[in-house]
């Protein structure tokens, strides 16, 4: 079976996603789309120049929406990262730009006859994922966002550093909005076979500090190079591969939760049919309250986006 992936938006993140897919041979066919025609053609040629030295071959198509018709997955990586250069570290600063761009792109995706899955990276990702689903009319479980898959990885990195472990040895989730209202659900975090909350005092861990480190990780990277790309691109490709390979992996991704009436990050099992099952966590009352706050905030911004006359 041929694996076909589209990447829309070839900035720092989209080009990193595309490079990871080409270098690792994750797709047979790759469709690259960007408004900057010269840039996307240059990327395509650069990837083709790399192929003689790679163990895989990838067929590349440029700026052709009709080529998305039979794609398995489309990754939305469009955005304007410069708008996030604000003192509040606020991903919603990008919304006026991205909601307008996404409304156009989602319509073109719909017109192409695309029937696959959409993985959104574009910020603010929970609102943008909702917009893609509404405009394309695809089933809710076929449209998902990277959400807190990245924030959870940042939390694992922070915890693992303190305990001198590999981050893959830490289990647990950051939940809610991929933004300022997200939080680490410490009741879900386990390490060395035990809940982290049991080990925290013994190991001298400040959970509040670790939570802040996970939340501000992206801002720290952004301050250093004015964009982030490797962490989020890796999260997106992990999600793409879970769909392509039908791996049925449980991941904290932005998915539509009926009880909140909105897209937010909560663990879900991802496979070829998108979100195939949703986890039900046993959260503390405080965590449930934080999740509700996150949901309300996302819902408010989504409603604003629907009413905006862009």
From TrEMBL:
Lactate/malate dehydrogenase C-terminal domain span: 148-304
Domain of life of the organism encoding this protein: Bacteria
Pfam family, any one: Ldh_1_N
Domain Lactate/malate dehydrogenase N-terminal, chain residue ranges per copy: 4-145
Entry keyword set: Oxidoreductase
PROSITE patterns, A to Z: L_LDH
Gene3D superfamilies: Lactate dehydrogenase/glycoside hydrolase, family 4, C-terminal (3.90.110.10), NAD(P)-binding Rossmann-like Domain (3.40.50.720)
Protein family membership: Belongs to the LDH/MDH superfamily. LDH family.
Protein name: L-lactate dehydrogenase
């Amino acid at each position: 079976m041929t694996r076909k992936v589209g990447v829309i938006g070839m900035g720092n993140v989209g080009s990193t996603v595309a490079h990871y897919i080409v270098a690792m041979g994750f797709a047979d066919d790759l469709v690259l789309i960007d408004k900057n025609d010269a840039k996307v053609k240059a990327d395509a040629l650069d990837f083709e120049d790399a192929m003689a030295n790679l163990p895989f071959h990838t067929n590349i198509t440029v700026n052709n929406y009709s080529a998305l018709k039979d794609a398995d997955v489309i990754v939305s990586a469009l955005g304007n990262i410069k708008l996030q250069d604000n003192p509040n570290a606020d991903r919603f600063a990008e919304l006026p730009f991205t909601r307008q761009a996404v409304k156009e792109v989602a319509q073109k995706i719909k017109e192409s006859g695309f029937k696959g899955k959409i993985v959104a990276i574009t910020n603010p990702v929970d609102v943008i994922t909702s917009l893609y689903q509404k405009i394309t009319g695809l089933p809710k479980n076929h449209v998902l966002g990277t959400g807190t898959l990245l924030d959870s990885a940042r939390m694992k990195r922070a915890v693992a550093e303190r305990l001198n472990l590999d981050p893959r040895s830490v289990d647990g989730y950051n939940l809610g909005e991929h933004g300022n209202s997200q939080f680490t659900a410490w009741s879900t975090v386990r390490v060395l076979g035990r809940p982290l909350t049991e080990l925290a005092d013994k190991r001298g861990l400040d959970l509040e500090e670790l939570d802040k480190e996970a939340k501000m990780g992206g801002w720290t990277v952004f301050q250093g190079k004015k964009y982030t790309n490797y962490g989020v691109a890796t999260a997106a490709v992990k999600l793409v591969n879970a769909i392509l390979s039908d791996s049925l992996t449980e991941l904290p991704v932005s998915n539509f939760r009926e009880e909140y009436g909105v897209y937010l990050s909560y663990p879900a099992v991802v496979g070829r049919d998108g979100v195939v099952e949703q986890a039900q966590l046993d959260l503390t009352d405080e965590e449930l309250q934080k999740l509700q706050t996150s949901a309300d905030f996302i819902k408010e911004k989504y409603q604003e986006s629907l009413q905006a006359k862009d």
